[in-house]
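@channel sequence for tomorrow's demo:
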Amino acid sequence: MAQRMGKEEVVAFLRDGGYEFKMVEHEAVFTMEGMEALNLPFGEEVVKNLFLRDDKKRNYYLVVMPEDKPANLKELRTKLEARPLRFASEDDLTQYLGLRGGAVSPFGVLNDEDAAVQVVFDEELRGYRGLGVHPNDNTATLHVALDDMVRIIESHGNSMRFVELSRPEPEE
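structure tokens (generated this afternoon):
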């Protein structure tokens, strides 16, 4: 198995590739509440990343969406034309993306040697200046342009698509 890309390797990969990014190092965070408490300069563009699988463990999805949008797995299943979706296990996360819980990130695809995981971006992210994501480690957050993230994923060979996920109606 190839060397897994952690924080240093992801940062070196971005620098070597000429990608622009901002990095803020911080204490380990495990929740979106923990991320908000950091008051990052790009905090409003921090995204949440869900690692999902279908009920037969045939298809795996890394879903990247606004952190304040609830994840509706039934709607997502319909948009992806997938079987019923579930959260993948910690073992699956390690096996496919070389990550552990709390550090899920689109950069995990760099550890996906078979390009088996499909990356799904919420259409709403097209309006962001950049994405706030971990560099495969939850002790730093990077702000990277969406176009660059798309290029990295595509050049790695993972399939990728944008889907429009609805926001729930605000309650009166």
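heads up for whoever presents: The first helix runs from residue 7 to 16.
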